[in-house]
Amino acid sequence: MSNQKEWENICETSDILPNIGVCALFKEQQVAIFKVIDQTGTEQLYAINNFCPFSKSNTISRGLVGSLDDKIVVASPLYKQHFDLATGICIEDSTVSVNIYSVRLNGNNIQLAA
Amino acid sequence: MSDRIKLVVIGNGPVGHNFLEYLVESGQSEQYQVTVFGEEPLPAYDRVHLTSWFKNQDVADINMVKGDFYPDNNFILHTGDKATKIDRAKHVVISESGLEVSYDKIILATGSFPFVPPVPGHERDNIFVYRTIDDLEKITAAAKTAKVGTVIGGGLLGLEAAKAVMDLDLETHVVEFAPRLMAVQIDDGGGAMLSKKIQDLGVSVHTQKNTQNIGDGDSAVHKMSFADGSELETDIIVFSAGIRPRDELARAAELQMGERGGVVINNNALTSDEDIYAIGEVALWDNKIFGLIAPGNAMAHAAVDHLTGTGDSEFAGADMSTKLKLMGVDVASIGDAHGNTPNSRSYTYVNDREEVYKKIVVSEDDKYLLGAVLIGDAAEYGSLLQFMLNKMELPAEPEGLILPSVDGSSSGIGVDALPDSAQLCSCLNVTKADIITAVQAGATDMAAIKDQTKAATGCGGCAALVTQVLNCELEKLGVEVNTDLCEHFAYTRQDLYNIIRVEEIKSFEELLEKHGSGLGCDICKPTAANILASCWNNHVFDSKLQGLQDTNDFYMGNMQKDGTYSVVPRIAGGEITPEKLIVLGEIAKDYGLYTKITGGQRIDLFGARAEQLPPIWRKLVDAGFETGHAYGKSLRTVKSCVGSTWCRYGVQDSMAMAIQLENRYKGLRSPHKIKLAVSGCTRECAEAQSKDFGIIATENGWNLYVCGNGGMKPRHGDLFASDLDDQQLIQYIDRICMFYVRTADRLQRTSVWMDNMEGGLEYLKSVIIDDKLGLAAELEQEMSHVVDTYQCEWKTAIDDPEKMKRFAHFVNSDKQDDNIIFTTEREQIRPVFTPEETLAVEVK
Ligand code: SRM
Ligand SMILES: Cc1cc2nc3c(=O)[nH]c(=O)nc-3n(C[C@H](O)[C@H](O)[C@H](O)COP(=O)(O)OP(=O)(O)OC[C@H]3O[C@@H](n4cnc5c(N)ncnc54)[C@H](O)[C@@H]3O)c2cc1C
Ligand code: SF4
Ligand code: FES
User: Fold this and answer.
1) Which of A10, A17, A67 faces B547 most closely, judged by CB atoms?
2) C-alpha of A16 from chain center
3) How far is Cα B40 from Cα B59, in angstroms, rounded to an integer?
4) Phi and psi at residue B43, in whole multiples of 5°?
5) Residue A114 covered by a domain
6) A62 vs B551: CB contact, 8 Å cut-off?
7) How many Å apart are CA A1 and CA B746, to the nearest integer?
8) B817 to chain A: which residues are within 8 Å by CB?
9) Of residues B460 and B564, which shows the higher confidence score?
10) Over chain B, what is the mean pLDDT?
């Protein structure tokens, strides 16, 4: 297992509004990045594929985030399926999932790694 | 095929129709080759609700025939064709149009006709009866040139007719031979109270008047002369002096008849000919004719059971208790209302202030209820009826059943105590056991109960009781009807609205912290955003609100299936200048957008990428356009017709009113979208009756219809008020709109809101017109806040470059989404379908 990740700068943290996603172009792929404020008031970063497998459109970053039971999720904006932001697995149909990406805050920079 | 039993049903009234429904339910209908003759031009309609049909004059409201019931079951229905002869020797039925249909069995369901006493002058013009749609149409037509209308007969049907006459805006009189109204069903005290209440409504009641002659009037069409020498002038007369069975066919066929008419039947609804059944108001059982729907249905059941051998129900007489709302007055009569049972006792409660009269008649030993009369307040009808029907022992002091309880506790019957066999709905013969079965099979609300058991779908008198049984059974099953908005808030939308208003909550975080749990979700966040907007009307991009908006609100456009957006500028009332049309055309051309006229009389531009929205809107705003809120749960459009300015029939300026209304309510956030329409005359080209608020011009102002709907489940609006001036009209809409915003569920259109409102239209009127809850001023003030703080969301946002940044597809690149691909069709763009679909198209 390699822990040597190649981190790439995407944007500054101020470019992402709390609880509102953005879409990043990362290695020719579209990645939805979310900055979720959890119940303790702490910022948590999540990154998953922007492509919604249900509507087949690049729209996940425009979904609403929230929680279902103890999972942090995003609702796809077109047909409202929920994806677990931590695992990429669809709540309504666990056979469907989207890729997740490593994301971190480095100084002021939001960084992604594959 | 030909070995099927030939069944001829004569008469397609409610009972004849219900017979066929029961036949289908018995599962045996395929054994029969069924031919139905109906004299009226329309298939069976619900006569009981004739008076309410009057309001909309829409036959669909009272049509009893679901979908293609007749063709689906291979029943042949001849409407507008009367059976003229039953030839028992040849076993054929002959019709007026000349059809000869042979039969094995006949169901005679010819009902009854209104009796018109042979008073001299009764055959004059402008004299009517009240039984069919045709009768009502004639009365309506005659009313156009009339001022005064008089009903002869103060019984149940006479008072119904009086209601219709009153609704036609005529000065209304009721003339009754007996010393009181509804002499059959209620006692003197009740009759007096009923008269008083009805006179309060503006109807003149004349009792003990025996009409002796009808001749030419001096100031009106007719003059009625009474035995006591007095006279009454009137333009229209409606006879409602009792009914007589339509037994002419049976009489000619020499079936056994009653002395005063009616076809004699036994407990199986069989006449003296074992191949002929008679059911409904034509049938005479134990020397009695039953002029109500419930006994007719019971006969129909007995006939099906006997005919098919699938059941053993018999007709064994019927309870004639009734509960009605006559001109808005509750009237109920149970059992021995007059106290005719020897040695019976009675208890009476009279309240002159509230104009309520209640009486119960009990057995000598105070143990059993024998009868009751309730006027002005019939809340106890259901429980009293059950005490009587089930011979349940009364509480020690039976008078408590009708005395108002000072501490608010009810002394009525616990529904739990009712035996399973108790018949809750007499119209449709539904027992408590039927309700329990339906609940066990998963019914959890009244809609499901009505659907599955048909309870409460007749006169509606049993609805309260059925609801109580339903709730009690649900409770027993431990079903808690969960009305929580979502897992984060254990409240309904209405609760949250109140919390936000009262505690002046301005953000979702505050709401969640004080009253919720978790992080929220795509249900509660937009709901909260919507309520916050209804209350405080801040911009959707307000930093506290932006994270709550559904993508459509966030991008102020509607997301399409490929992730592009539509652009819908407001075109108030559908009126647009050529200059603006050209601007729209140019923008569509410049950005290559698909252009379509919407169903809401405006123009939708489709296919805009998120990053194109700001420049497109820059141009629109500069040209004077505003956002159309096509994305919001908010006012959509006010549809209009061209109105009196251009149209030869227009009686008011509907165009100006539509524009005024659209500009007033634009931007208002509401539980679901709201649509209005304004028509310039009764031809209704704007289809206003299918809108949440429909406004139709009259000679004197505007008629306001409320809670109409198109969409998935169409509903015609209810007439809320007539002949309003501009100011009243707006005042009422303001109030209703805000009351809806306050009290509706999430995503509940006004139509469903109305259907679920206890007390319905009358209740809404009392809140809005009579200000029963003392809310009117507050509602108006809340609306004026919304109107005063209106801003075009696009116009406000477009000058803020920081806010426009969010429209870029990528946070870190100027590239476009390469997944959005268009092709052309009919000279415009359209999204390319998914690869599979494209393939499918090619293969074809
Ligand atoms: C564009 C339009 C169809 C068209 O090409 O003409 C349209 C398009 C949509 N309608 Fe509609 N409706 C449009 C007129 C209507 C009408 C006709 C009317 O308003 O006179 C109706 C029936 C009348 C009514 O609402 O009572 C109508 C009944 C619905 C319904 C069913 C509502 C219901 O109560 O049953 C929905 C679904 C919903 O809202 O839950 C819906 C939902 C939608 C949505 C928002 C579906 C969606 O979520 O994507 C469509 C997106 C619009 C867009 O992307 O811009 N639309 N829709 C019409 C826009 C009118 C406008 O100018 O704003
Ligand atoms: C205004 C009004 C309000 C009422 N309110 C109530 C109420 O609240 N509760 C209640 O229980 N009852 C009420 N009733 C009574 C109820 O409507 C009747 O009990 C019911 O309609 C009886 O049904 P039926 O099918 O026996 O007869 P009908 O409804 O009279 O139907 C018989 C049908 O047969 C047709 N017909 C007759 N002869 C022939 C022939 N030879 N060939 C072909 N067709 C023929 C007739 O044209 C008619 O359409 C009300 C009645 C009216 C008029
Ligand atoms: S009818 Fe259905 S498909 Fe057509 S616009 Fe309305 S919502 Fe869309
Ligand atoms: S009793 Fe008339 S509908 Fe139930």
Assistant:
1) A17
2) 12
3) 13
4) -65, 170
5) no
6) yes
7) 49
8) 30, 58
9) B564
10) 90
pLDDT score recorded for residue B595: 97
When pLDDT is cut at 50, 70 and 90, the band that residue B657 belongs to is: very high
- Residue B630 and residue B301: Cα distance in Å, rounded? 52
pLDDT-derived band at B808 (thresholds 50, 70, 90) equals very high
DSSP letters for B686-707: T-GGGSSEEEEEETTEEEEEES
Q: What per-residue confidence (pLDDT) applies to A29?
A: 93
Highest mean pLDDT among B120-124, B536-540, B744-748: B120-124
Using an 8 Å Cβ cutoff, are B234 and B221 in contact? yes
Contacts of B586 (CB under 8 A, 6+ apart): none
| Residue-level pLDDT at B482 | 64
Sign of torsion over alpha carbons B36, B39, B44, B47: negative
The mean-pLDDT minimum among A45-49, B21-25, B136-140, B460-464 falls in B460-464
The predicted complex's ipTM stands at 0.71
Using the Cβ of B343 and the Cβ atoms of chain A, whether some distance falls under 8 Å is answered with no
Q: Is A58 domain-assigned?
A: yes
Query: How close is the nearest chain A Cα to the Cα of B793, in Å?
Result: 19
Instruction: Count structural domains, chain A.
Output: 1
| Structure letter (DSSP) for residue B64 | -
Closest CA to B621 of B808, B371, B798: B798
Q: Which residues contact B395 (CB under 8 A, 6 or more apart)?
A: B401, B411
Of B519, B555, B812, the CB nearest to A72: B519
Q: Is B538 helix (H, G, I), strand (E, B) or coil?
A: coil
Is A63 within a domain? yes
pLDDT (tens digit, 9 = 90+) per residue, B703-740? 999 999 998 778 999 999 999 999 999 999 999 999 99
How many Cβ atoms sit within 10 Å of the Cβ of residue B708?
25
Q: B428, B435, B449, B467: which to mutate for ligand 4, most atoms within 8 A of CB?
A: B428
pLDDT digits (tens, 9 = 90+) for B485-498: 888 998 888 889 88
Q: Does A86 touch chain B (CB under 8 A)?
A: no
| Chain B CA closest to residue A15 | B811
User: Looking at B571-575, B660-664, B695-699, B769-773, which range is the least confident one?
Assistant: B769-773
Sort residue B153 into left (φ over 0), alpha (ψ -120 to 50) or beta: left
Look up the pTM and report it: 0.56
What local confidence, expressed as pLDDT, does residue B414 receive? Answer: 65
Most A CBs within 10 A among B510, B513, B519, B611, hence the mutation to make, goes to: B519
Task: List the CATH number of the domain containing A72.
Answer: 2.102.10.10
Spacing, Cα B139 to ligand 2 middle (Å)? 18
pLDDT digits (tens, 9 = 90+) for B223-241: 999 999 999 999 999 999 9
| Index of the ligand 2 atom closest to the CA of residue B427 | 11
Q: Could A75 and B522 be called an inter-chain contact, meaning their C-beta atoms sit closer than 8 Å?
A: yes
pLDDT of residue B480: 64
Q: Does A47 map to a domain?
A: yes
What stretch of H or E contains B71?
A: helix B69-72
Instruction: Tell me, using a 6 A CB cutoff, whether residue B462 lines ligand 4.
Output: yes
Domain hosting A88: range is 7-108
In angstroms, the CA A59 to CA A55 distance is 9
Query: Is beta strand B828-831 parallel, antiparallel or unpaired with respect to B822-825?
Result: antiparallel
- Is B555 touching A (CB cutoff 8 A)? yes
User: Closest to B547 (Cβ–Cβ): which among A19, A73, A77?
Assistant: A19
Given 3-state DSSP classes, what are the helix, strand and coil percentages for chain A, each rounded to the nearest 5? 5, 50, 45
Please tell me the distance from the alpha carbon of residue B580 to that of residue B834, in angstroms, as a whole number: 36
* Tokens standing for residue B419: 């035996």
Would you state the pLDDT for residue B403? 82
Q: Which residues contact B158 (CB under 8 A, 6 or more apart)?
A: B151, B152, B174, B176, B240, B241
